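Re: Re: ligand-bound prediction request (bumping)

Still looking for help on this. To restate: I need the protein modeled with zinc ion bound, output as structure tokens. Inputs repeated here so nobody has to scroll up.
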Amino acid sequence: MKSFRIGSLFGIPIKLDLTFLLVLPLFAYLIGIQIESVTDILNEIWGAGISIDALTGGMTPWILGTIAAIGLFVGVVCHELGHSLTAQRYGFPIESITLWLFGGIAAFSEMPEDWRQELNIAIAGPIVSVLVGIVSYVAFVLSPDVLSGVVAPETLDGIRFVLGYLAVLNVALAIFNMVPAFPMDGGRVLRALLARSQPYARATQQAAGVGKIFAVLMGLFGLLVMNWLLIGIALFVYIGASSESQQVTMKAAFQDVVVSDIMTPATDLHTVSTDTSVAELVKRMFSERHTGYPVLENGRLVGLVTLSDAREIKPVERDAYTVDEVMSTDLKTISPDSDAMTAIEQMQRDNIGRLLVVDSGPGHGMETGSQDYQEQDLVGLISRTDVMTAFNIIQKSGAMGPMGDRESQPAD
Ligand SMILES: [Zn+2]
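Reply:
Sorry for the wait, this slipped through. Here it is.
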């Protein structure tokens, strides 16, 4: 997603996604064409006494639509700030708040697994939305007394339309967000409540299941009434529920599993030495069906060579080159005591298929990342395949961790 920063609040950067620039005029338009019906409703339920004629001439509907749409998104930012400030109070850092196609996202670098914290963070957004709705309503009620005589009657009608509509929209936003489906707030509330009495991973799976059912119903209803926004949100909720439950299931499965538990140990590794010829390397790649080899010199790790490195040399010249001329020495490494989840995240972040597991001696056990190759002892290699195999074994053995149900430690 392409986004740019527009400022910051409470030290949290506020960003606009490009998709938001599409949705703002759309909302302005939608509000603009609904002015008559919305005003009718406001007049009916709250006796607003707004003159429809004052709002419908010339450009007025589009100006009011734009102001109300901007007001709505200010409400969305307040909603996200509700989540973010609550999370910050518990010590979870917030990277940014981004406005995009479907509203706002507060980007957390980690999520709490304590159900009370998750409940409070999840519910803070809708509570703030209700408060914004109440403030809008109070302003709507007080505006005739405060502003009559100060602004023209038509302007006052416009202001009251915007305030009244924002009161309704913010409360609607709170209700909509409480739909019990990930990644909506209601999904998190549901998981928090389920996690009171059972392991977090199981609560996530159940909450995600409920979310998927809601998403399918929402999508079917969207198709029935041909509402594309609803279909889009349904799809978004379905994908959100799936990825949330996958991520959490994986995290739970790998709890207390470290890299050395699931790596291919150095003794089982196919390696090459620096003076192996590229021709010999390619031959081994075909016969052993490996596309990447750690390169050793006197038993120490000095590089990694892959099929694409070898391919840079023309077939006829491959006898004349050795591995140390084509290998890469900028190595992505991880320590054997690192969490398996850290290895997965590192592979995802760097978009690579394998990490070299190195022991950099006492005192450096937890270090990850690129290191100076002179200090490194290769102890193994961890690949995406190793991770998926381990994950399948842990899943099929019925336990969430290799030693049983360890994630059910009492929270807090
Ligand atoms: Zn929310």
